[in-house]
Specification:
two-stranded antiparallel ribbon, 2 domains, mainly alpha
């Protein structure tokens, strides 16, 4: 028997509809209709996308006395398969939704699930902390892969420690996919990106001799440095003994963005 979830405040449902029905970045009218049919929520023709979605979700929630219909709609709307060609759109909507869902102690994770997450203490706390960090990350054009592994739930929960750990994993995953093997840590870097003799498997240039070789080695050493500084201590030490400030998190994500963009343009050799 499916778990019954308590109804959400109208303000939360309205905010969810505001994200998914956003004029510039939300679902299309047709997509909204298709998704409502999938989750068996009666549709209605009422105003703009946001108002339409707000109205039908609130009406269904009232009929059922539960928020299950809203959760089901979010889950269908955020199914990763819908974003194969639009990863940036997924990251934006995921972050926007998570800023809202923190009010009901939930989050959208990367497996299309609406999962338990930290609940916000106060609206002022959320706005002050999340908005400032998010604005700065967007100002820096942070690479979407770094943000995809470091959702704003960690930031909303004031946990830059775990944000940093998750963000560094994004770099490892991209290198692992390019290199085509399942190694980790220094072995992953040595096998995939380090130019020992000739060209590295994941090459950002010809890297045979001279400055080009130094550039490739520099990238490999940078990745190793980030592993050593963030991933390894975070994986083995209690959070109490390893503090990451907001400022350090911003600097880390900026550095990871640079690494991701170099890997984006890399070519894989045999």
């Amino acid at each position: 028997m499916a778990t019954r979830h308590e109804p959400w405040p109208a303000t939360v449902v309205t905010a969810v509809a505001g994200v998914l029905g956003d004029t510039a970045h939300g679902l299309t009218e047709r997509e909204i209709g298709q998704l409502l049919a999938v989750v068996k929520v009666p549709d209605a023709d009422s105003g703009n996308k946001r108002d339409r979605l707000t109205g039908v979700l609130l009406a269904q929630q009232a009929r059922q006395g539960a928020s299950n219909c809203v959760i089901a709609f979010i889950k269908e709307a955020m199914a990763p398969v819908r974003y194969v060609q639009q990863p940036h759109t997924f990251s934006r909507r995921q972050d926007d939704l998570n800023e809202v869902l923190v009010h009901v102690g939930l989050r959208v994770n990367n497996q299309e699930q609406v999962a338990r997450g930290p609940a916000a203490a106060t609206l002022n706390e959320i706005t002050r902390h999340a908005s400032s960090l998010r604005a700065e990350l967007r100002h820096r054009s942070t690479h979407p892969e770094a943000l995809r592994y470091c959702t704003l739930v960690e930031i909303l929960a004031k946990s830059p420690f775990h944000s940093g750990l998750e963000a560094v994993k994004s770099m490892a995953d991209q290198l692992r996919q390019l290199a085509g093997h399942g190694l980790a840590g220094a072995r992953l870097v040595d096998h995939g990106a380090h130019a020992g003799h000739g060209t590295a498997r994941v090459a950002i240039n010809a890297n045979v001799t001279g400055p080009r070789l130094d550039e490739q080695k520099g990238l490999a050493n940078q990745v190793k440095y980030l592993f050593s500084l963030y991933r390894n201590p975070a994986a083995h030490e209690p959070r109490l003994h390893h503090t990451v400030t907001d400022e350090e998190l911003l600097e880390l994500l900026t550095t990871l963005s640079m690494v991701h963009r170099r890997l984006d343009s890399a070519h894989v050799t045999s």
